[in-house]
Amino acid sequence: MNPLFKRFLKSPFQVASIVPSSKALIRRVSEKMDFAHPRVIAEFGPGEGCHTREIVSRMHPESKLLLFELDDELSLHLKKQFEADNRVSVLNTDCANLPHELDRHGHLHCDYVVSGIPFSILEKKKKQEILENTFRVLSPEPHAAFIIYQVTNELHSNGHCDHFAKAESEYCLRNLPPMFVTKFYKQHNGDHSPRSKNGRVERHSSGRKH
Known about the structure:
By secondary structure, the protein is of the alpha/beta class.
């Protein structure tokens, strides 16, 4: 049985989707990151690991990947799947603990934080905590970014991420359900994402400097 479907039946509000992301969506998300250099990457809610496998396949040999998976069984599934790769750490804990876990693993900053968790169903206080912690630990470099794929684009459209300097958003139709892929930059001079053949890229600046 699909591990996502199995866990969805037990915890429908903890598992975002029973259908793994399409290859098109996985590629779209991974292309938002620059893997040419050693990076520290965190992934929130990796589920059964479809995005994780793509990230791992592209990562620099000296990169590190922290996986935050709250579901016990999916966490165990991920540990077995990536046990041979010492670049990957599976953390069965709340992603709001990102600053603590980075420190515990000897990292000052993250280069990228990738998330597929459904922010639209989170309580406002929890949502703010995760977003503020994510912004705080991102590296003060042009490439550093928070990358999300969501059914709704409420983090962007409702101003929840206005503390980020800039956002680029596109719509990936080749997924069930279709998803918004949005990249929030820590700094204004972050690299622009290439225009997609299958999705529209929107560029937004909050007008704030950090």
